Amino acid sequence: xxxxxxxxxxxxxxxxxxxxxxxxxxxxxxxxxxxxxxxxxxxxxxxxxxxxxxxxxxxxxxxxxxxxxxxxxxxxxxxxxxxxxxxxxxxxxxxxxxxxxxxxxxxxxxxxxxxxxxxxxxxxxxxxxxxxxxxxxxxxxxxxxxxxxxxxxxxxxxxxxxxxxxxxxxxxxxxxxxxxxxxxxxxxxxxxxxxxxxxxxxxxxxxxxxxxxxxxxxxxxxxxxxxxxxxxxxxxxxxxxxxxxxxxxxxxxxxxxxxxxxxxxxxxxxxxxxxxxxxxxxxxxxxxx
Amino acid sequence: xxxxxxxxxxxxxxxxxxxxxxxxxxxxxxxxxxxxxxxxxxxxxxxxxxxxxxxxxxxxxxxxxxxxxxxxxxxxxxxxxxxxxxxxxxxxxxxxxxxxxxxxxxxxxxxxxxxxxxxxxxxxxxxxxxxxxxxxxxxxxxxxxxxxxxxxxxxxxxxxxxxxxxxxxxxxxxxxxxxxxxxxxxxxxxxxxxxxxxxxxxxxxxxxxxxxxxxxxxxxxxxxxxxxxxxxxxxxxxxxxxxxxxxxxxxxxxxxxxxxxxxxxxxxxxxxxxxxxxxxxxxxxxxxxxxxxxxxxxxxxxxxxxxxxxxxxxxxxxxxxxxxxxxxxxxxxxxxxxxxxxxxxxxxxxxxxxxxxxxxxxxxxxxxxxxxxxxxxxxxxxxxxxxxxxxxxxxxxxxxxxxxxxxxxxxxxxxxxxxxxxxxxxxxxxxxxxxxxxxxxxxxxxxxxxxxxxxxxxxxxxxxxxxx
Lengths: 289, 468
What we know:
Chain B: InterPro entries: UCP010256, Uncharacterised_CoxE, vWFA_dom_sf. Chain A contains 14 helices and nine strands.
């Protein structure tokens, strides 16, 4: 049942931190449970809080191969699961002109002509793997049906070959920005983790880790201002990615402290809508931009 | 699935099942599989670290972030931080406040807030409830009140002191810019303290009355399930934030339905006629021509005080859905009708002020301020009937309380004859329809009236009632 990558919650936190992923207690606990219970992990949350990064970090820590299925509208079975290599099949048929039909037919539907797509790849083989199904909400509803078999029993049925079961369970991470509601059936098969904005202390550590040259006091101010922005009910609240971008910008600008001018000039790095910039400027008492 | 892991004791199993029952009673759907997962999670995590237990159970039992608002308080009741008062005993101080040192506690709280020491703030919340929250003296009529605690302690008045303490401490650093954030930060910390006091009081009460009853009664439902008519300010804000996610969900559902419908069906009559040249063998199937799909929508909203929250939310939702309709027109009324479609378009930037702007800029009231459906419907039928056509779906929003005036049924009949369909969404409980001055049942005979009391219901209704 278990994937067996981790021994305890502390182990998760410590080893993820080594790769540069600072996990909140919620993240560490859920990752450990997903590993221990052998269940897929459904990660939701705003863009830019490190959902995809989490899968990458787990793969790195576990020394596992990362198999990624990027979902988009129109992704289908042949992109997600497997496909028959038609060109090769045709070659095989033309090469064997003299054979009887029975010989040819049984032949061209064998492993050799099967093109493994991410879901099948993640299941086959004995090496440890992390399967990342990214932006699951972007895929059509039909794809969720495909996922159900894979995620509950870790097997894939190819009509011509039969059922292929996992020799070794992959660690599965599904991410979603909740732009479409995922089906109840899919949710039931997963452990649920919502990654929100980190608390102040954690975010400060993340910024210090990702932007090493930044002065500690400045990092703290950046995090505080971002926290204030998040409390403002904006159209797009700044995410951790934006905090880091901002910190990098400030470093590049050579700013030592946050003052009115610096904030006003660089607010566009953090906020992505003009409405938000205006609103934030008003609330922060910046002079008209 | 295997049976319950051995090392989870019966007591813990009871807690988990109790927790699940309480969550279910709040409308969170949890299957047996998830309950088993929860127990397995506890077995894997152990019970030493309460935060881990909380996160583990949430991961196993919940499916959506919005459920967290219900989960957290219920969790506090079933897995309480401690038992009894801060020293472990259930010392119920009858004359609460007399034994406790109010000023001393306030001093310590101010220091803790200034230092943002969360552990200490939590401990002080426990002390505060113990010292100031108890009321009553005889068993059965006594209890713990967060309201009373907060009233006596008045933590919000500490703001200036905390601010001064922080400024004094950080004078040397002189981070001028971040100073302007401090007041808001401290307000948030104080709100955090208040929330902890509420949690603590609930826990103490639960000890006396049993967690199950408190979980059922005292835990607030999530914003989406709050009754429109009962929603307070905080809930309305939360509801407004829920508009866009809800609209997005609805949009995908409507778009999917439209896509499916676009496959079309075979027009048998035309297929057969076309088959004459092939001797009656239908070689070429002819698909039924589809009518233009996007519905036109007309909203007619009562914006009088009693139902304004409901109307505002619905208007914002429809506005957010605008690309799903070929045309949306919104009319607001109290006792006079005015078109507010334009106001709503500007309202996207500032949804909070929408209601005020409608009342301020549109002529929705005449000579008095209470709603009058008869006059409003009549005026609509007279002035804006051309907004309604054979392709439009009309939603009327309101509680149908006419304040004893004439319901003007002919006007509604006139509207419903012109429209493709008319639905009346009523935020009142069905049991209250046609009590007092409500003309609900009279209207319901003419047009279909549905009960619509919270955001979840509204979303479902809009998805179901709209034509493809």
